[in-house]
């Protein structure tokens, strides 16, 4: 920062309440009132240097005491005092901080060369040209002070000349940058870097008012010299300098957090920054766009601003990481911690653009890789927000189901998210569990995940049954899974069987189901059904025989019905069992309904497993039966 000292006399001005005067043996004969301050001065030093005072005092005699009101002097009483001290020859220090009010006041008082040689205006112009405009930070400080006197600064050319000086230095090759600048990026050490960073100028201009900052950026962009990434970096630095941070913690909505006036100022800054983002896709990062969108939600920005941010974010969404999309909720009515609505809105914007690019995304390798990357990102996000104890299931399900089927190569990530949610929310209802698990496609689970799912006590029973069915269809016959199924079946309530049967009867039969059912031979099905009947008998048969031999207990009526049902199944030939199974697959459900009624009346774990497996066979094109 450069300074200029003018005058040699000591400062003899003093202030007493609202009166400022000069220590002198000569009584004051000139009283000048500026706003609420009264100056008791002398005609001799002031009038010869001020053309305005010469005109106002022309009608008075030299011996008269003259009183003048100058309430409209630019810069107020402080600027007028600088001009008065110059007239008395008192030492004054000029810098970029006080140049603008002093220059405007001197122009107002007409302290020019036409009035007296070596006048105040000439010295101020020399300081402006040789010191302020030649530096880097000086024109920035001077430009910032013009916001208090915008009309005077504009008319006198101060704003234009400062902007030209700043832009000229920004466009200077980094090898020729020799002036001091501010650069405080995390991890950057000037001593370790010999070369000047390309964005060396961004922090210093971030101190400017948004309108002045816009003028600088517009002037720089008009030259087409700096790349769009540099413009984007300047916008990022300015946003971090002036906009509230909504990424670290949930902002407070109390009355003392932000006044409406400060919010309005922040909204104006946000909308200006959004309007200055270059059209080049790589000019700003997806993380920055998402931060701006989160801030827009917090400030209540206009729909136009939010829509533009969502459009730009949708274009770059595949570049996002998990940390980029983790934002606290901005609505005071939300009990959950994370802004899942923001992620859903950006995902929807991405999908709109994605669907427009190709009607058959699977045939486009780039589009397929893009949507698969988004699928992994969303599943990772679901796993993270599932730990939120206040996260409602509908929001979780809505985001998970927003992705098309092609976005997930497997459902392992989705299963992990569901398992985490059920673990963190042990009190979730049975209906909500069903709604959550309905998203899963058991055919897209890896063998390791299916093995975990079969043993998972948190999952609904029918989910486990269908997982086991696909485990068997894929060739995995690990016997360690079967006792788990039997245990879960014994713990199932009686109505679970009826619900499974009802869903089986109500589900529409889709064309092409047969082609998607795994190819299984008649002999394999016969062996599976016979093995299940043997297991169904062995689970309870031994206990009943022990009870009968001891004679200590009477046969339970329900147990008697189970024996009747078991006898019926055992009396059926393998071809009859095969007919019932294939008849259900092809949609001819009359015989199958009769079988379901028999299974329901028996109410045994064997019956429940049969219904579950048959439901799985019918519904292999579905994500998950209830």
From TrEMBL:
Family annotation (InterPro entries):
NPH3/RPT2-like (IPR043454), NPH3_dom (IPR027356), SKP1/BTB/POZ_sf (IPR011333)
Q: Where is the composition biased (Basic and acidic residues)?
A: 516-548
CDD domains cross-referenced by the UniProt entry: BTB_POZ_NPY3-like
Q: Where is the NPH3 domain?
A: 199-474
What superkingdom heads the lineage? Eukaryota
Output the Pfam families linked to this UniProt entry: NPH3 (PF03000)
Q: Which Gene3D superfamilies match?
A: Potassium Channel Kv1.1, Chain A
Sorted keywords for this record are:
Ubl conjugation pathway
Keyword NAD appears in the UniProt entry: no
**Location of region: Disordered:** 476-560
Tell me the route in metabolism or biology where this protein functions.
Protein modification; protein ubiquitination
Protein's recorded name: NPH3 domain-containing protein
Species assigned in the record: Hibiscus sabdariffa (roselle)
């Amino acid at each position: 920062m450069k300074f200029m000292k003018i005058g040699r006399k000591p400062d003899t001005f003093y202030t007493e309440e609202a009166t400022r005067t000069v220590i002198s043996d000569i009584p004051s004969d000139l009283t000048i009132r500026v706003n609420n301050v009264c100056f008791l001065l002398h005609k001799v030093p002031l009038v010869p240097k001020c053309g305005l005072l010469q005109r106002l005092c022309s009608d008075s005699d030299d011996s008269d005491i003259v009183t003048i009101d100058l309430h409209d002097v630019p810069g107020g009483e402080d600027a007028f005092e600088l001009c008065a001290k110059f007239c008395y020859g008192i030492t004054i220090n000029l810098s970029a901080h006080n140049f603008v009010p002093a220059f405007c006041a001197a122009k107002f008082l007409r302290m020019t060369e036409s009035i007296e040689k070596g006048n105040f205006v000439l010295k101020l112009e020399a300081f402006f040209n040789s010191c302020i405009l030649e530096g880097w930070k000086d024109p920035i400080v001077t430009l910032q002070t013009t916001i208090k006197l915008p009309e005077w600064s504009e008319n006198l050319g101060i704003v234009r000349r400062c902007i030209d000086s700043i832009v000229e230095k920004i466009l200077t090759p980094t090898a020729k940058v020799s002036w001091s600048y501010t650069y405080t990026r995390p991890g950057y050490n000037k001593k370790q870097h010999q070369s000047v960073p390309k964005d060396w100028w961004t922090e210093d201009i971030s101190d400017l008012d948004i309108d002045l900052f816009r003028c600088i950026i517009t002037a720089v962009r008009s030259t087409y010299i700096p790349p769009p990434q540099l413009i984007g970096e300047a916008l990022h630095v300015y946003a971090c300098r002036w906009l509230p941070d909504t990424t670290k913690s949930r902002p407070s909505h109390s009355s003392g957090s932000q006044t409406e006036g400060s919010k309005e100022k922040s909204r104006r800054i946000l909308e200006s920054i959004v309007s200055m983002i270059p059209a080049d896709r790589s000019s700003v990062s997806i993380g920055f766009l998402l931060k701006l969108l989160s801030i827009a939600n917090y400030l209540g920005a206009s729909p136009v601003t939010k829509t533009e941010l969502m459009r730009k974010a949708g274009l770059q969404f595949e570049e996002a990481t998990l940390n980029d999309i983790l934002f606290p909720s901005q609505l005071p009515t939300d009990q959950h911690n994370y802004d899942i609505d923001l992620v859903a809105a950006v995902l929807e914007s991405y999908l709109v653009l994605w669907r427009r690019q190709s009607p058959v995304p699977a045939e486009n390798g780039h589009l397929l890789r893009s949507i698969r990357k988004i699928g992994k990102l969303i599943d990772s996000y679901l796993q993270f927000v599932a730990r939120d104890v206040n996260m409602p299931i509908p929001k979780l399900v809505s985001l998970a189901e927003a992705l098309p089927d092609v976005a997930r190569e497997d459902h392992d990530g989705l299963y992990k998210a569901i398992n985490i949610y059920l673990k963190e929310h042990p009190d979730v209802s049975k209906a909500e569990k069903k709604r959550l698990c309905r998203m899963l496609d058991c055919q897209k689970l890896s063998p390791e995940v299916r093995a975990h799912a079969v043993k998972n006590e948190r999952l609904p029973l029918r989910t486990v049954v269908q997982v086991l069915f696909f485990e068997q269809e894929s060739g995995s016959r690990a016997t360690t899974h079967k006792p788990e199924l039997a245990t879960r079946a014994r713990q199932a309530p009686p109505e679970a069987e009826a619900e499974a049967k009802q869903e089986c009867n109500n589900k529409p039969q889709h064309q092409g189901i047969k082609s998607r059912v795994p190819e299984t031979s008649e002999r394999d099905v016969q062996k599976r059904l016979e093995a299940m009947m043997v297991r169904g008998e062995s689970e309870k048969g031994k206990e009943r025989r022990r009870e009968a031999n001891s004679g200590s207990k009477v046969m339970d009526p329900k147990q008697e019905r189970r024996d009747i049902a078991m006898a019926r199944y055992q009396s059926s030939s393998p071809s009859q069992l095969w007919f019932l199974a294939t008849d259900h697959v092809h949609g001819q459900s009359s015989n199958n309904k009769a079988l379901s009624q028999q299974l329901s009346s028996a109410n045994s774990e064997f019956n429940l497993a049969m219904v579950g497996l048959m439901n799985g066979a019918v519904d292999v094109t579905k994500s998950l039966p209830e």
